[in-house]
Amino acid sequence: MEYSLNQYILIIEPSAALKEGMAAYYTRFAENYEAAAHIRAHANISLVRFQQYEMMEVRIMAPLGRIIQSFNPIIIDIHGFGSFPTHTIFFNIATKNELIVLVKAIASIRGLLTPDKDHKAHFITDPYIVLANKLLPWQFEKGWLEMSHTPFSGRFVATEIKLLRKRASEQQYRVIKKIPLLHQKVMPAIQGHLFL
Q: Per the domain annotation, does 190 fall within a domain?
């Protein structure tokens, strides 16, 4: 078990109130376009996807925690919908800059998130929240025609990042760590003197 690669995702979950507001869009899209199998059950923003051996978790946690805790809580605005032509429709995140900076900071420990050259970590620098993916061409065309003209707006404050894990033997991801965004200064291990 400990020698098989686990799958990991770092995510931000929208507030309960915002998820409740999004639920009607998921339901309507599934019903209108026979797309229940293509709907994401859990609305979230994926930041990093990687594979790693479970025995590496202990080594990953401290540096990952330091990076995430150095960031302020992030205000996230969602406006309208976007798409990846032919297969995916998503809730569009209008405020991406801080998320991109966070993802790039996490990329500084990419070596810890990469078990070998065949399993590179995926850092998501264009974040979004999936409405439906892996759509058939007709589902995408008709669905995007509607959703591209459908208004939606929402806002929430992200106060934590969740690390999820899925073992090879498991069907679903499980939360293994919640890391708060605390705006703590990252102190170097040894601090030099400014003036001698």
A: no
Cα 101 to Cα 28, 30, 110: the distances in Å are: 34, 34, 15
As for how many domains the chain has, the answer is 1
64: tokens are 């990952």
133 found inside a domain? yes
Exposure class string for 88-114: b at 16+ Cβ within 10 A, else e: bbbbbbeebebbeebbeebeebeebbe
Instruction: Answer whether residue 68 is part of any domain.
Output: yes
What Rg, from alpha-carbon coordinates, does the chain have? Answer: 19
Per residue of the chain (196 residues), give pLDDT as tens: 457 899 999 999 999 999 999 999 999 999 999 988 888 767 899 999 999 999 999 999 999 999 999 999 999 999 999 999 999 999 999 999 999 999 999 999 999 999 999 999 999 999 999 999 999 999 999 999 999 999 999 999 999 999 999 999 999 999 999 999 987 665 544 444 444 3
Q: What is the CATH number of the domain that holds 50?
A: 3.90.1140.10
* Domain interval for residue 101: 5-180
Q: Is residue 115 part of a domain?
A: yes
- DSSP-assigned letters across all residues of 131-173: EE-S--HHHHHHHHHHHTT---EEEEEE-EEEEEEE-TT-SS-
